[in-house]
Design goal:
- This protein is of the alpha/beta class and about 325 residues long.
- It has a single domain, classed as Ribonuclease Z/Hydroxyacylglutathione hydrolase-like (Metallo-beta-lactamase, Chain A, 4-Layer Sandwich), CATH 3.60.15.10.
- It is about 25% helix and about 25% strand.
- Strands 8-5-4-3-2-1-15 form a 7-stranded mixed β-sheet. Strands 9-10-11-12-13-14 form a 6-stranded mixed β-sheet. Strands 6-7 form a two-stranded antiparallel ribbon.
- A hairpin with a 2-residue loop joins strand 2 and strand 3.
- Helix 6 runs parallel beside helix 7.
- It is globular.
- The termini are far apart.
- GO terms for molecular function: 7,8-dihydropterin-6-yl-methyl-4-(beta-D-ribofuranosyl)aminobenzene 5'-phosphate synthase.
- InterPro entries: DHPS-like_MBL-fold, Metallo-B-lactamas, Metallo-beta-lactamase_dom, RibonucZ/Hydroxyglut_hydro.
- Its EC number is 2.5.1.105.
- This is 7, 8-dihydropterin-6-yl-methyl-4-(Beta-D-ribofuranosyl)aminobenzene 5'-phosphate synthase.
- Keywords: Signal, Transferase.
Length: about 325
């Protein structure tokens, strides 16, 4: 049988598509945030982003409201059934509410989440964690005095393929979940995962809320690769005073960061300070933005002075920030 030229070309292109996908430039798309310039998406306080690299599709966080997340995902044409993995940054609701939507579409997807002793993502502890008193009668003792060697704790997502992470781990070739722990008043002992992806341009660092401190996370990322091409996500200075904001700008200065794209809980005053500090290396990455890492010159996004909020975006961000549970003390010296 002789194939017609058009059909033969179509078959050849179809066979080549996976290779094109694997060799495509890494990119990240913001699916959930309280500011942005895409009218097809619904703004809300929270964060979610899709990272596509080396043929893999990684969802980072799932936003604040399941139905808003569902609509935004649909508007961007994202098929959750095609996800290769999910990374949940931490246990706050504005980052995890859409996980149920993900599991509807992809119940067997691997979900990497912070390991905590008693956490919503489930965990386990050796039964030796509690003191025992053999003098008590069995009816007064846990498990009648004969506990299992390991105690397993439940999760809000029964049946989900949750994979707790306690320390920085390479979860795929060139992809790491960076584990840090907050020592900041208001979130002390909260465990958080950030995502680091090696790209031809340098390291892509995606942060959810940076509760342990953005400089702490950047320092951990620099141990993997000191050449950091882009830092994107929530920096958690939404209520910070000027001294604290100046402090984080100063703390980031020694690191080799090509571009910075703050979002979510970074805060308006911190947006402005980072814009001044980084100039054209400051990228606008609001809701719906897609940043393609295909050039040393950085993603093709509004940058520097062109990355400012308009009045409508500023008003919406302020209103949604008031609804977010992010008012922690970021005054200098705390």
């Amino acid at each position: 049988m002789t194939l017609r030229p058009v059909l033969l070309l179509s078959l050849l292109l179809s066979a080549a598509l996976p290779a094109f996908a694997e060799n495509a430039a890494p990119k990240i798309t913001v699916l959930y945030d309280a500011f942005g310039d895409d009218p097809a998406l619904e703004k809300d306080w929270g964060f979610a982003a899709l990272i596509e690299v080396d043929g893999q599709r990684i969802l980072f966080d799932t936003g604040n409201d399941a139905e808003t997340f569902r609509r935004n995902v649909a508007a961007k044409g994202v098929d959750l059934a095609d996800l290769d993995m999910v990374v949940m940054s931490h246990r706050h609701a504005d980052h995890m509410a859409g996980l149920s939507v993900v599991l509807e579409a992809n119940p067997d997807v691997a979900i990497h989440a912070p390991q905590e002793g008693f956490g919503i993502y489930g965990s386990s502890l050796p039964s030796s964690f509690y003191r025992k008193d053999d003098a008590l009668p069995a009816r007064m003792r846990y498990f009648d005095g004969a506990p299992p060697e390991t105690l397993h704790f439940g999760t809000a997502w029964s049946g989900a393929k949750l994979q707790p992470i306690a320390q920085t781990t390479e979860i795929a070739p060139g992809v790491w979940a960076i584990a840090t722990v907050s020592d900041v008043p208001g979130t002390r002992e909260l465990r958080e995962l950030s995502l680091a992806v090696r790209t031809p341009q340098g390291l892509l660092l995606v942060v959810g809320c940076s509760h342990p401190g953005l400089p702490v996370i950047v320092a951990e990322a620099a141990k993997l690769d000191p050449d950091i091409h882009l830092v994107i996500g929530g920096f958690h200075y939404v209520s910070a005073d000027d001294a604290a904001i100046a402090g984080v700008v100063e703390a980031l200065a020694p690191y080799d960061i090509d571009f910075i794209a703050p979002g979510h809980c970074t805060g308006e005053a911190t947006f402005a300070a980072l814009q001044r500090a980084y100039g054209d290396r400051y990228l606008y990455a609001g809701l719906g933005a897609t940043l393609v890492l295909d050039s040393a010159a950085g993603p093709d996004r509004p940058r520097g002075a062109a990355a400012v909020f308009d009045d409508a975006a500023r008003t919406a961000y302020r209103a949604l920030a008031l609804r977010g549970d992010h008012v922690h003390d970021h005054s200098a010296g705390r």
